[in-house]
Specification:
alpha+beta, Immunoglobulin-like, 6-stranded mixed sheet, 41% strand, elongated
Length: 303
């Protein structure tokens, strides 16, 4: 009797174990199926997150643009490009002007041969393009592009303000004018005034002075006048007791040759202004001709 009872309990235990094993198998299969489904969903999301127009595609934090930027010649400009959800995509900067297209940067590498251009990345997501010493040739459209398919692009229109530059010459000594040439006597005071007129407010553009290719840094005073419509900068170069060595071409320049003015200064030492002009070989020719005439007369008289 006891043996039969033991046999029944043993069979019940085997049946219980069988059901437990089956239940574990079913649960394991469910978990595996669920994980596979999740993995597929993740892969699917990763696959679609860079497609333009999807909720995971890169986007510009400040909006798609376009932006308008005005810069003054000789200044520094920074063009912002803040990108969210960039992931592993590459950012490039391109400059378009008329039919000319120039590749400036790819990722953090600069591809432009112009050393004024650099990528000034600002953490965490601003792929900022920087241009120093702006010139009029920097005018045009700048595109910040993300390498999606098709490319995600934001445009910035850069307008370069080219100021009006005027030059005048005054002095305390005797001055003779002749076109773009001005003549001073030795010992006079040379004073050249360069007037620069900018549209809008002043942003620090510098007036530079040159005699030929030599930079002038002394004897210069400057004042600025701002109003609602324009900024006027008056830069004055003053040299007392001028000598012959002060002769030359004087230029005032703001950023580039497109914003400059020049005058040719001649310092006289009791000579007439015409004598210092290039090509005035008349006096020399007369002396040579007179010498030959005197020699000819001597030959005739001796014969």
């Amino acid at each position: 009797m006891e043996k039969a009872h033991y046999t029944v309990h043993r069979q019940a235990l085997w049946i219980l174990c069988f059901h437990v094993v089956c239940s574990i198998s079913i649960v394991t299969e469910y978990i595996s199926t669920t994980q596979t489904t999740m993995d597929v969903n993740v892969i699917d999301e990763n696959h679609h997150q860079h497609e333009v127009g999807s909720k995971w595609s890169p986007l510009f934090e400040d909006g798609p643009g376009p932006d308008n930027v005005t810069a003054r010649i000789g200044s520094t400009v920074q063009l912002n490009c803040k990108i969210q959800l960039l992931y592993d995509k590459t950012v490039t900067w391109v400059h378009r002007k008329s039919d000319d297209i120039q590749l400036l940067t790819v990722g953090r590498q600069v591809h432009s041969s112009d050393q004024r251009i650099s990528l000034s990345f600002r953490y965490p997501n601003n792929w900022r393009l920087q241009i120093v010493y702006i010139t009029d040739r920097d005018d045009g459209v700048y595109e910040c592009q993300v390498a999606t398919h098709p490319p995600t692009t934001k445009k910035t229109y850069l307008r370069v303000d080219v100021p009006t530059v005027r030059m005048s010459v005054t002095g305390t000594g005797d001055v003779t004018r002749g076109g773009s040439d001005v003549f001073y006597k030795t010992g006079s005071t040379l004073e050249i005034v360069c007037k620069v007129i900018h549209a809008g407010s002043n942003n620090g553009s510098k007036v530079s002075w040159f005699r030929g290719r030599q930079t002038i840094s002394s004897g210069i005073t400057e004042r600025a006048n701002n109003d609602s419509s324009c900024t006027t900068v008056v830069s004055t170069l003053k040299i007392k007791h001028v000598q012959k060595k002060h002769s030359g071409n004087y230029t005032c320049l703001v950023g580039s040759s497109s914003a400059s003015a020049a005058v040719s200064i001649h310092i006289l030492n009791g000579d007439q202004p015409a004598a210092v002009h290039d090509g005035n070989s008349g006096p020399l020719v007369c002396c040579v001709a007179g010498w030959w005439l005197l020699t000819l007369c001597c030959l005739v008289l001796s014969s």
